[in-house]
Structure formats: structure tokens, C-alpha cells
Amino acid sequence: MKEVSPAKAYALHLGVIALLFALSFVLPEYHHGLLARIMVLAVFAMGYNMLFGYVGLLSLGHAMFFSAGLYGAGLAVIHLGWSVPAAFAAGLACGALLALIIGVLALRTSGVAFMIVTMMFAQVFYLIILYFASWTGGDQGLVVPQSARVLVLGSTSLGLTNPTVRYMSALALFSIVLLVTLAVVRSRYGRVLVAIRENEERTKMLGYDTFSNKLAAVVVSGTICAASGAAYALLFGYVGSTFASVQYSILPLLWVLLGGAATTLGPLIGTLFMYYVVDITSGYTSAYLLIVGIALILLVLFFPKGILGTIRQRWLGWLP
Amino acid sequence: MMPLLTTKGLSRNFGGLRAVDGVDFALMPGEIRAVIGPNGAGKTTFVSLVSGRIQPSSGMIVFDGADITNLPAYARVRLGIAYTFQITSVFANLTAYDNVALPVQRTLTDGRSKGAVHAGVMAALERTGLADRAHMPAGQLSYGHQRLLEVAMGLALKPRLLILDEPTQGLADSEIDNFIGLVREIAKSATVLLIEHNMPVVMQLADRITVFNAGKILAEGTPEQVRANAEVQAAYLGTTP
Lengths: 320, 241
What we know:
The complex is a heterodimer. By secondary structure, chain A is mostly helical. Chain A has one domain. Chain A is 73% helix and 4% strand. In chain A, the strands form 2 sheets. In chain A, strands 1-4 form a two-stranded antiparallel sheet. Chain A has a two-stranded antiparallel sheet with strand order 2-3. The longest helix of chain A is centred in the N-terminal third of the chain and has 27 residues. The mean pLDDT of chain A is 92. By secondary structure, chain B is α/β, with parallel strands linked by helices. Chain B folds into 2 domains: 163 residues, Rossmann fold; 71 residues, no CATH class. Helix content of chain B is 38%, strand content 25%. In chain B, the strands form 2 sheets. Chain B has a 6-stranded mixed sheet, sandwiched between helices. A 4-stranded antiparallel sheet of chain B has the order 2-1-4-5, with helices on one face. The radius of gyration of chain B is 18 Å and the shape is globular. Chains A and B meet through helix 8 and helix 9 of A and helix 2 and helix 3 of B. Chain A: Keywords: Cell membrane, Membrane, Transmembrane, Transmembrane helix. Chain A: This is Branched-chain amino acid ABC transporter permease. Chain A: GO terms for molecular function: branched-chain amino acid transmembrane transporter activity. Chain A: It is a multi-pass membrane protein.
């Protein structure tokens, strides 16, 4: 499972990144913008997958990590006038810190209790955003001014509102996170995470401090989700409380399940699939959610482990 | 010589049941010690207390001169107490290789060298005769091989004390012979604490035997002494009519 040619796995991932890069030059404007958004949200899904897919911890509160990044970066720009890189770092820091605190508390539980506890914390986070409306814009949200969304690199300044810059920034983030995820799951640490998922008691009896390992995974997962949120705020210029609502805790779970839990590329495929099913069907009928529902049922029937998970199980055992 | 492991007044209650009741126990380094006793005598509870899987109600455990009573299980493993499960609990979805790589990679202090993990894994698999099955998912191995994999994982921890909880349960006779040879070899570098129901295995392997009954130590001695002990015969082997 782990010893099979690493070159093949890296080639596939680099191929996917190259394909996304090439698509930037051929896609029509609408799909170009949509794909940039999908890549950013796929990062959210990858962060979720790190915890859910590899460690087997089902959180229903990951919207708080996404929105920690979203508000951390957005508010730093709006209220403090920070530059884009500084704001992005602020978003990451908020997500990492929040994940550390939530991890210490929530990991005292497991299973259903863990789901409920994470969901409650996320709800608290959501209500805090609404409560401090004078800062956060409450349920209206805030728009990050275009003038502030400029990335200054030496003497050149890149406007993040420019579609190509936006697409390439999204791709850069996506690529980094994808390769980091691949490296982590292939590493010794990744092997320990899978062992915890498969049998935590046994892992302890091999001398592993499973609590610390799980806590580290929560922090990594939360930080990746925060990176997605921070990028969203800076690239798309909107910071809103919807992103902290329970819906945005369920969506990454759905994307990951669709694409294939514990597969590195599954989160991208799941996010892509879900966005395009909604996009295409809503063009034909206002009852598109019905069709989305049917598509999901068919998928569960024929691809019970998600698209990539089932492909791996049946045909391509070497997929990471 | 100082004992490797001692327990003093070790007790564990489950509700009203005293599963382990004030046990004073000492194990010398290099020994193969068998723990026997009828079902429900408290053998598994006793070794679970030693390995840290459950916490004692009272009493203390000393390993290599240090009080480990309050250490969590994983920290005890790091001190060198390895436990192999009575009910086979290998990672069924991982390959035999990955199963053994988990303990190997943890014991390596030199975390960088990839070759060291591979060498350690293959050494443990070869000692247990599983090398040619390294890339099979553990769940697809035969029961006997899963038991051996369990031992390989214990070995890979480089333990100072290896606790084997009913290792021969469910093994065929031919496999048991190999197993006896394996335990003898392990005992060259580690102290072995063995819970076993199979009397021929116990008599062949053990340097000393401890007999549990109703949570207490009923008798202790060499195989011959235990075999001749009238109380043991009454409690465990059955009374002669």
C-alpha cells in the first residue's frame, strides 16, 4: 500500500496541477472564475479530509476554522489596513490557534460526542460573529475593498481582482496544500494517523501518544481550512457569517465523501463535481436540488467510497 | 539481582468484583514466566494493569526500579513493556509491513534514515516467518499468521518485558511447535510474561509458573513444584475423585 512507486503518485499530482494551470488559458471567463473558487474551496475540503479521512475524526464544526481564516484575514485588512501577505498570515494564525484550543477541548470526546462538541463550538463561533456586528458586519458581512486587495511583490503590484492573478493565486495555494497533504499522508506521521483511525487502542499499545498525534492533526487540518478561508476573503473580497454557519461545516464533509475520503485528490474531485452538478442542473430547472439529490443517491449506490475511493478500491490500488 | 517488575498490593475492582486482589508479584530479568489459572482468575486483568491498559484501584507497580503506577500505557511501552493482545488486533486494512513499521519507526531514535525502518521491519517479519507476506493486508492473513504478526509487532518494539496474552490460542499443533521455538529465541533478549492455557506449552517454556485463582496468587514455583502442589491441583487441574 505504501511501498508502491512514489514516483507514480507524485507524477499524477504534478500532472493534475499542470492540467489546472493549462486550463487557465483555455477556459471561458465564467468557468475560469468558477474553477478558481473551486480550487480555494477544495483546499477547505483537503483540510477537512486530513482529519476525517486519515484520522477518522468526524467534525461537524469545520466552518469555524474556515471562517477563522476568513475573518482573520478580512478584518486585518479592513480594520487594521494590513497588507495581503500579513493578512493571510493573520488568518492562518487565527485558524491554528483556534484549532489548538478546540482540539484540546473536543478531543476529550470521540465518536458522536466529538461531532456534537465540534458543532456546538462552531455554533458559538457563529453567534460571536453575529454578536460583534459592529466589527464583523453581522449577517450582512463585509466587503474587502478592492484597493486593499493588491499583492505587492518588490516593484510589481498584482491586483487580486484580476482574473488571471486570482486564478494563479488559487492554484498556487491549492498546489502547495495538495503536495503538503501528499507528503504528510505518505510520511511516518501519516501512517500513525491511519493507525489511530483503524484501531486507537492498539496504536497506544505500540507506544504512541495518540492524543498528541490527534491534536497535531486537528491543528494541521484547522490551519489548512483557515488558509482556504483567508484566501477566499482576499481573492473574492467578501467576508460573511454564512461561511460560519452549520451549512459550511457539512459541505466539506459532503465534498470529501463524494470525492473519496482518505484520498489526496478526492477533495478536489468532490468539490468540482458538486459545484458543476449544481451549476449545470440549475441552468435547466429551478428544482435543481431534486436532481442534485438523485445524483448523490446514485453516487452512494455505485461509488460507496466516493468517486476516487471506489476507483482506488476496484482498479488503481496505488492511488494515495 | 533486582527484579525487572514488581507489584505490591495490586488490586482492581469492577463494581463489587475484586478481579485482582492484593497481588504481590516479582519477575526477574531474563525469565520466562507463565501465568496460569482458571477462567476469570484475573490473569488478563493483571497483565492489563501492568501494561497500563487499565488503572489499578490500589497498589503499585515498579518496573526496573521506577514507580510506573501512574504512567499512561504509551509511556510504559516506551519504557519497554510490550503487550500482545489476546484477541488478535492487528490493523486489518494495513499491510503486514505497515503493521510492523508502526512499532519500528517509533523505536528508532534516528528518525531520518528510511533504510532503518525497512531493515527493522524485515528483520521482525523474518524472525516470525512472515517476510514473504509483507505486502498482504493483515486482515487477509490466516489466523495463525495474524497471531505471529501480533508477536512481530511486539518484537519490533524491542521490549525488555514482552507480555503474551494467550498467544497459542487457535493455533494448529505444527504452528505451536514453531511458536515455542520463537518464544525461546525472544527470551534471549527479553523477559517474557506469558498467559497460557495450553499446559504442554507452559511446561515446556516456563522457568517459573504463577498460578492465579479468584484474583489472588495461589502458588508460584518451578513447573515441577506447581505440578506437585495439592492446592493447585484442587483449584485448577481438578480434584481426583
